[in-house]
Amino acid sequence: MSKLLKPNDAIKAVYEDKFQLFLQNIGVYENVISGTEKCKFCSQPISLDNIVSVFPESGTIKFVCDNPECIRKMNNYFNEKQ
Ligand SMILES: [Zn+2]
Known about the structure:
- It is a single chain.
- The chain is α+β, with helices and mostly antiparallel strands.
- It has three helices and two strands.
- The chain has one domain.
- Strands 1-2 form a two-stranded antiparallel sheet.
- Strand 1 and strand 2 form a beta hairpin.
- The N and C termini lie far apart (50 Å).
- It binds zinc ion.
């Protein structure tokens, strides 16, 4: 079996690298790694595997997991804010 990355995998890896850097820049990377942050909508612990989005709210950082229901709620949430 070849160990070469498929083009999509390479793009995802670069994206994940930048995302982890972004999490480090906003100071939440360690929390995500150690599983102490929770999804804003379903309170499931957030990890690098299920994190979909982060956004600031009232001076803190909120996290959203990859549950389709949470993604739907996040979209509604931002639509209502506008
Ligand atoms: Zn969730």
